[in-house]
Amino acid sequence: MQRDSVCNLLDFSRDIYSVSRLNREARAVLEGGFPLLWVEGELSNLAQPASGHIYFSLKDPAAQVRCAMFRSKRLLLGFKPANHQQVLVRARVGLYEGRGEFQLIVEHMEPAGEGALRLQFERLKQRLAVEGLFDESHKRPLPSIPRQVGLITSPTGAAVRDLLTVLERRFPALPVLIYPAQVQGESAARELVAALDLANGRAECDVLILARGGGSLEDLQAFNDEALARAIRRSAIPVVTGIGHEIDFSIADLAADRRGATPSAAAELVSPSAQHMAQRVGACGQRLEAALTRELAARRQGFAAAERHLRLLHPRDRLRRRQRDVEALQRRLATAVERRLAEVRRRLDPLTLRVRGASPQDELARRYLIVGALGRRLDEAVDRILDARGERLARAVQGLEARSPLATLTRGFAILRRVPTGRVITDAGRLVPGDRVDARLARGRLILEVVEVVGED
User: Which of 242, 239, 192 has the alpha carbon at shortest distance from 212?
Assistant: First the structure.
């Protein structure tokens, strides 16, 4: 009885796995224990059901592993897989829980020949990235309007024709210089590096395009060269790449300052659009015209104000004001004379009464003579004062007329002003033949054109 109790306790402490749990946890261990892997092998047992997925085995002489590639990834394949084909796959390690089968979930597959190049590409890419060779902080801006564009490419390939066609279409006035180099083969990378160094040594261009047409990964291998990537980065001139097609990506693309998906796209990156520049120039012209219109309006207002001020200072107006002042003085003088005469009369009236009261004929006659003399002296004094004031007024009028520009014009002189600014001309040296001049005469104006400028002897 005691022995059965112990057995029951032992059974209770066991952690018993179901098959599903075992497969699930084994799958978690496998998927968490392996990163995304590159695996090379031979295709066998290839099956392509109607679902669009493909199932196959990947084997080498000693072993094989089941693989699955789902429809979404299969659609991206650039070739048609077949049994006995050597391939390179990028896959995740997994476990099919339903049957407990170890398998690879394939994300990418390519023929094994390109696969080796792809592995080489990835290793070089990672090493150069760790060095910071591809950092965006090292990228240089492209000139908005280059003085001259340099093309580093094969002079006989299709890429150079595409580049020249696009550059001619977008900006015909842009000069182009070709630095010829092989873009495929064993010596291509060395020639591309030499062309880059030559372009930098001659410093004839302010942007370079490194380009070639499409091809296989092996055809584009020259642009996955480490020496070329370092030459691009040490270039003092910004480098734009246009290599292959949009899906092609090379080490040179990563090292370049800008990447064009194709040679034509690279040409569009470096060349301004003539139509766009014409629109910009037109917009600038409109802004300039509007600014000039505003400036002319402001100048016209200023000239109008100056003209009004000048009219106030014109000698004719000043003469009229002086004339009004003289007339006012004359009225004040006549009023003063009348007051003086009235005062004299008031002083004489008592005397006249006293004389009449005394009735001395002789004294009366004498007084009449005195009064007559005083009256004559008063008239003479008034005449002298009036004559003196009249002479001063005449001299003032003559002086004002002598200083008046209008009086000068009547003697055959003219006032010259520049057309269209209206500035008064005092120095013939400020004019050149062809300038237009506005001549103000005593009567009327003349618009003259300068034929010759003669300086002072």
Answer: 242
* H or E, element range at 294: helix 274-313
Structure tokens at 352: 């006249």
Count other C-beta atoms under 10 Å from residue 56's C-beta. Answer: 27
What whole-number distance in Å separates Cα of residue 25 and Cα of residue 17? 10
Under 8 Å CB-to-CB from 381, ≥6 apart: which residues? none
| 220 φ/ψ sector (left φ>0, alpha ψ -120 to 50, else beta) | alpha
Alpha carbon distance 347, 354 (integer Å): 12
Sequence-separated (6 or more) residues with CB below 8 Å from residue 233: 133, 138, 255
Residue 57: which pLDDT band, with cuts at 50, 70 and 90? very high
Pairing label, strands 101-111, 86-96:
antiparallel
119-146 pLDDT, tens digit each: 678 888 888 888 888 888 888 888 888 8
Q: How far is Cα of residue 340 from the mean position of the Cα atoms in its chain?
A: 85
Q: Is 350 exposed, middle or buried (0-12, 13-18, 19+ CB in 10 A)?
A: exposed
Find out whether 242 and 260 touch, Cβ atoms under 8 Å: yes
Which tens digit of pLDDT belongs to each residue from 138-195? 888 888 888 899 999 888 888 888 888 888 888 887 899 999 988 888 888 899 999 9
Q: The whole model's pTM is what?
A: 0.43
Burial letters 176-213, b for 16+ CB under 10 A, else e: bebbebbbbeeebbebbbebbeebbeeeebbbbbbbbb
Are 150 and 177 a contacting pair, CB within 8 Å?
yes
Summarize pLDDT for 331-366 with one digit per residue, the tens: 899 999 988 888 888 888 787 777 666 666 767 778
Strand 436-440 with 445-449, pairing? antiparallel
